[in-house]
Amino acid sequence: MRNLPQILIDDFHVLGKNMPDAIALEVNGKKYSVHYPADTPLLYVLRDDLGLTGTKYGCGEGQCGACTVLISGAPRRSCQISVSSIAGRSITTIEGLEKDGHLHPVQQAFLDAGAFQCAYCTSGMIMSSVGLLRTKPKPTAAEIMQFLQGNICRCGTHPRILEAVNNAAQALREQNP
Ligand code: FES
Ligand code: FES
Question: Which of 96, 118, 133 is the last residue before a domain boundary?
Answer without folding.
Answer: 96
